[in-house]
Structure formats: structure tokens, C-alpha cells
Amino acid sequence: MGIRANSGQSTEEKIRQELKKPAMYHVFLLNDDYTTMDFVVSVLEKVFRKSTVEATQIMLHVHKKGKGLAGTYTREIAETKIGTVHRLAREYEFPLRCSMEKE
Ligand code: TYC
To answer: Which has more pLDDT, 4 or 96?
Structure first.
């Protein structure tokens, strides 16, 4: 166990914080002109666990409206999914991007 600086939070405040539901974050997919529709559908299926039907609906919504909700997660999970999408996009040489917004 390391030595930690005191956060200034009282025990009561810490308990209150731990009982709260975690903050949730929306992850959005952003449209671009170059990423293929098939790639976006695959990302929605594999990274965001959507069915083929739902993935196709979300992809078409993003294509028409500019952005669309891929999922809502705690901060760490949202950040990890965004990192995975950006890594896959880079690997396959597509400019696909995600954004994140507090719920
Ligand atoms: N607009 C892209 C095309 O016409 C398809 C696309 C959809 C790209 C959704 C990104 O997040 C996206 N090939």
C-alpha cells in the first residue's frame, strides 16, 4: 500500500459518492465521405454489440444526419470503445471518428 495524499473528502462524502450511480457518457459515430458503409456496420456489430439490422439503421442515420448514437457507457468503457474504433479505423486506413458526451 502506497502513501496517498488526503483528497479532502470526508468519510461521509466518500460513502455518498460510492452509493451514487456512475456518470454515463454517450458515444457517437461521426459521418465522413470515405469510410465504407460495410466497415461502419462491422464496427457497430463488433465494438458496440449491435445486431446487423440495428447496426445498419444506425450507420444510415449517421450517413444522413452527420452523427448517431452508438451506445452509452461509464467513462472508462466509453473511452476504451472510442480507442478501439480509432485504432481499427487507422489500421484499415479510414477516417472514421467517434465523439463522447456526458449524458
Ligand atoms: N458516408 C459514408 C459513405 O457514404 C458512410 C459512413 C456512415 C461513414 C457512417 C461514416 O460514421 C459513418 N461511404
So the answer is: 96
pLDDT digits (tens, 9 = 90+) for 23-47: 999 999 999 999 999 999 999 999 9
Pocket of ligand 1 (CB under 6 A): 29-33, 35-37, 40, 59, 62-63, 96
For 15, 16, 58, 60, the CA distances from 9, given in Å and listed in that order, are 10, 10, 42, 47
Distance, in Å, from the CA atom of 19 to the CA atom of 33, rounded to the nearest integer, reads 44
Pair 23, 74: CB distance under 8 Å: yes
Centre of ligand 1 from the C-alpha of residue 30, in Å:
8
